[in-house]
Specification:
Elements: E1 2-5, E2 23-37, E3 42-57, H1 60-70, E4 76-83, E5 86-93, E6 101-102
Parallel strand pairs: 1-5
Antiparallel strand pairs: 1-3, 2-3, 2-6, 4-5
């Protein structure tokens, strides 16, 4: 299975160690999403924009670990998207974004430019 990551799970980011057993397939930009800063990590929500991330091949145990990290408490919901590497899971932020800082570039690595 595959996963699209756009924030702290990306290479050289704070939670990239969760992806140790994953195989990087390539970069990908997904349209019709907006990126917001939640502090130390981002949240993507449907909207007008593009979010930049990376697609990985992962195993079921890694997906279970990521689900525990991302979906507990209802902060994110896992959704299937289409990428050039095949369908992939993406964690979509589920809470209101009013008052949060939007990352206009859609790239978490550019967050300090806002």
């Amino acid at each position: 299975m595959r996963i699209f990551v756009y924030g702290s799970l990306r290479r050289k980011q704070g939670n990239s160690h969760w992806m140790t057993n994953a195989q990087w397939l390539g970069d990908y930009d997904i349209d019709h999403y907006q990126l917001y800063s939640l502090g130390h990590y981002p949240g993507a929500v449907p909207g007008e924009g593009t979010v930049t991330g990376e697609v990985y091949r992962i195993d079921a145990s890694t997906l279970a670990e990521l689900d525990a990290l991302r979906t507990s408490g209802g902060e994110y919901k896992r959704q299937l998207i289409q990428t050039p590497y095949g369908s992939a899971w993406m964690y979509v932020y589920q809470r209101p974004v009013e008052g949060l800082t939007r990352i206009d570039s859609g790239n978490w690595l550019d967050r300090d430019a806002n």
